Amino acid sequence: MTTAQDLFAQGSHAFAEDDYEEALNFYSQAIEVNGTHVEIFLKRSATYQKLGKDKEAYEDAVHALELIKEKPSSDVTVEAKAQLRKGVAAFHLQDFQTAKVALEACQALSPEQRTLASWIRKNEQELAKLPKAAAPAAAAPATVTAATPAADVTPVVSAVASPASTPVPAPLTPAAHRVRHEWYQNDTFVTISIFIKNVKKEAVEIIFTDKALSVSVKMSAGSNYSLELDPLSHKVIPSECKYEVLSTKIEIQLKKEVFAIKWGSLEGDDVNAGSMAAVSAGAAPAYPTSSRKPKNWDALAKEAANDEDKADGDKALNQLFSQIYKDADDDTKRAMMKSFTESNGTCLSTNWEEVGKGTVETRPPEGMVAKKYSS
User: Fold this and answer.
1) Nearest one of 106, 114, 113, 45 to 79, comparing CA atoms
2) pLDDT for 168
3) Dihedral of the CA atoms 162, 165, 166, 170 (nearest 10)?
4) What is the pLDDT of residues 4-28, one digit of tens each?
5) Is 225 helix (H, G, I), strand (E, B) or coil?
6) How far apart are CA 39 and CA 269, in angstroms?
7) ∠ at Cα 213 (163, 182), nearest 5°?
8) Residues 269/262, Cβ–Cβ less than 8 Å
């Protein structure tokens, strides 16, 4: 019988390959086998987020926190991770008050969590956009008199407990799941291309840490695009990472901490890591992309080169003449040059004994007449 750990490992492998539907399938099977494993719920929450299913991502994070409460652990980083997942999901559901509480709880437990500072800042920016009239709502219970029925304050409590209850001026991330990104690498950099057209530079916020990348883009339609890679499969040097906003895409370069290491995936545990030198010396390198059916670009380049070699028409004839001339002796070369030049390109002979006797006449093809060129 397949164990929950086996299914979890298969799900993590699919997640690393950017096959989120397959990862979701494995994580869900693992939960059916063992519904008390906190880490599986957290990974499924992250997978739901990648698929744009923010409500499900929120529910899995909340369930993970409930499991932690039932069986407290001395490792506070797990609870911090669950609070972070809850905060991120609440942010995408536009419940910024709930996100604030969760992110602050994460900060209290483990302030070194990667991308935490970025999410806190993003959430504070959204809270600042809320109507001023909404701000006193949290303090409303303090002004209620003893005669006020308890039912009058119930809406205030539910406003904090239920996700997506806080009004906001603009939708968040609906376009994120329509944006494509791809990546490739060399010895020094991993390059990520995010294909969004006509983005203003001031609308792009990118944060680099040694093991995470956070990208936020304010889209022209009023929504936000977000790409969170946490953790990256390998460490990078944040101070030497860079990005450029182009007319057709945003190009990000991550400086590898370990020179010439071959990344097998962008995010999570990299079981396919290797050496770029080994790739160069041995088998043809693979170029990872967001496509689930990667192309062998080297094979395509070789095929294109072969197609060029298979010339036809005048090109094929010229290639044949060049080959003959290259391998010919001196008399043959003289014959070819003399016959071709004197006949105005209408005759090519390799017989010097015949060509050397006199001028080679112009011999136009049948049905055509040779005329002298006059400038």
Assistant:
1) 106
2) 44
3) 130
4) 889 998 998 888 888 889 999 999 9
5) strand
6) 14
7) 100
8) no
Q: What is the dihedral of CA 75, 76, 82, 86, to 10 degrees?
A: 170
SS3 at position 256: strand
368 burial level (CB within 10 Å; 0-12, 13-18, 19+): exposed
Q: Which residue has the tokens 């390799």?
A: 350
User: How far is Cα 227 from Cα 144, in angstroms, rounded to an integer?
Assistant: 43
φ and ψ of 250, to 5 deg: -110, 125
Contacts (Cβ under 8 Å, ≥6 apart) of 336:
321, 324, 325, 328, 348, 349, 350
The identity of residue 153, as a single letter, is V
Q: What would the DSSP string read from start to end of 134-155?
A: GGGGGGGGGG--TTS-GGGGHH
Please tell me the distance from the alpha carbon of residue 248 to that of residue 271, in angstroms, as a whole number: 33
Tokens encoding 312: 């036809």
* Tokens, residue 15: 């997640």
Q: Write the pLDDT tens digit of every residue in 269-299.
A: 777 777 776 555 554 455 555 554 455 556 6
DSSP 8-class letter at 50: H
- Rg of the chain on CA atoms, in Å: 33
User: Which parts of the chain have pLDDT scores under 50?
Assistant: 134-162, 164-177, 283-284, 292-293
- Residues contacting residue 351 through CB under 8 Å, at least 6 positions apart: 335
Strands (E), the chain: 181-185, 189-194, 204-209, 212-218, 224-229, 242-245, 250-255, 261-262, 274-275
- The Cα–Cα gap between 365 and 186 comes to 55
- d(C-alpha 165, C-alpha 161), whole Å: 9
Burial of 27 (0-12, 13-18, 19+ CB in 10 A): buried
Provide the pLDDT for residue 350. Answer: 85
Please say whether the dihedral angle defined by the alpha carbons of residues 321, 324, 329 and 335, taken in this order, is positive or negative.
negative
**Secondary structure class of 215 (helix, strand, coil):** strand
